[in-house]
């Protein structure tokens, strides 16, 4: 079991994200994962720094902790050739500590380049082609590719690490889990769903299984729930909403009726270890072995201290029920 920390790049400045990564290493976390967004989700967040610049700074300022994107869409806003180069460079700068988390994206971030937002079945096709291009470029040498949606012309990534980054594929269904087994090295999800793990392993997948555990550390449960509503209420809308809305104002409208009680039901709110363990247990039961803790609460540094002194040991001791 590895325990990570979610760097919420939409809620904090780039410099603060780097500082939190350093603090996470000091607190004993095994990895951090950072979102790769162009826009924040809701109007209260007010940040969205460039993930790859922050990752470079994190690599320079840490020694042990693993780094990951959680997650990058490798098409539309980017071309997969750029992500192949960026991930290889980050792996070199981090001395082999980087994992490339990838997914099929959200309109929130991808529409900004004016190329439209394809239907979901087209996005899945583009996602596969993107992974094929990244794998091709990581073979070394000059490469070309002509797919249904994406092309690559005589390109080469010159600086390749001896150990390539792992590719962890975000999944919300059997097809994505099977793609992760075929072209990835692991899966990434935000739900404690056993079926996603089973589809991955049934297709031959043997790599790490990442997830995000929703917590909101605060002096009281109510304060935690209120902070979670302010910063993370978009998370209870479901993927069909999250992938389709274009701007924070749209998410503000879509989440206007989300209550603090809704957040209390979805997040482990407050200071109690038992509450936090209860939020993590379903993910452990479902077979996930890389738990990234979200802290949507009011006290960032207090949570790091809490993790070190109270939460880390019992969390690492969790085993599947039964």
UniProtKB/TrEMBL annotation:
Domain of life: Bacteria
SUPFAM superfamilies attached to this UniProt entry: Bacterial luciferase-like
Pfam assignment, any one: Bac_luciferase
CDD domains documented for this protein: Tetrahydromethanopterin_reductase
Residues annotated as domain Luciferase-like: 12-269
Transmembrane stretches, start-end: none
Gene Ontology molecular-function annotations: oxidoreductase activity
EC class: oxidoreductase
Record-listed E.C. numbers: 1.-.-.-
Keywords, alphabetical: Oxidoreductase
InterPro entries linked: F420-G6PD/mer (IPR050564), F420_G6P_DH-rel (IPR019945), Luciferase-like_dom (IPR011251), Luciferase-like_sf (IPR036661)
Entry-linked NCBIfam families: F420_G6P_family
Protein name per its UniProtKB record: TIGR03557 family F420-dependent LLM class oxidoreductase
Species of origin: Actinomycetospora flava
């Amino acid at each position: 079991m590895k325990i990570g920390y979610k760097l919420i790049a939409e809620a904090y400045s780039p410099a603060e994200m780097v500082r939190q990564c350093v603090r996470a290493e000091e607190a004993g976390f095994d990895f951090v994962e950072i979102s790769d967004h162009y826009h924040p989700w809701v109007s209260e967040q007010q940040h969205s720094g460039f993930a790859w610049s922050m990752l470079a700074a994190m690599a320079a300022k840490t020694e042990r902790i693993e780094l990951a994107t959680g997650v990058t869409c490798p098409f539309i806003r980017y071309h997969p050739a750029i992500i192949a180069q960026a991930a290889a460079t980050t792996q070199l700068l981090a001395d082999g500590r980087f994992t490339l988390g990838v997914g099929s994206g959200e309109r929130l971030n991808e529409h900004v380049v004016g190329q439209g937002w394809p239907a979901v079945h087209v996005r899945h096709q583009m996602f596969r082609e993107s992974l094929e291009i990244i794998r091709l470029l990581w073979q070394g040498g000059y490469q070309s590719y002509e797919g249904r949606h994406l092309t690559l012309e005589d390109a080469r990534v010159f600086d390749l690490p001896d150990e390539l980054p792992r590719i962890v594929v975000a999944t919300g269904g059997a097809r994505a889990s099977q793609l992760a087994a075929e072209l990835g090295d692991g899966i990434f999800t935000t739900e404690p769903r056993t079926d996603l793990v089973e589809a991955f392993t049934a297709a031959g997948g043997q790599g790490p299984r990442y997830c995000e555990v929703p917590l909101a550390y605060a002096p009281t449960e109510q304060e935690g729930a209120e902070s979670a509503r302010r910063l993370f209420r978009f998370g209870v809308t479901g993927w069909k909403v999250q992938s389709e809305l274009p701007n924070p104002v749209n998410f503000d409208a879509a989440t206007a009726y989300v209550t603090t009680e809704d957040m209390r039901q979805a997040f482990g709110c407050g200071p109690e270890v038992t509450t936090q363990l209860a939020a993590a247990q379903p993910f452990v039961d479902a077979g996930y072995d890389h738990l990234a803790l979200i802290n949507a609460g009011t006290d960032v540094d207090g949570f790091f201290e809490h993790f070190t002194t109270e939460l880390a040991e019992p969390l690492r001791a969790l085993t599947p029920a039964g």
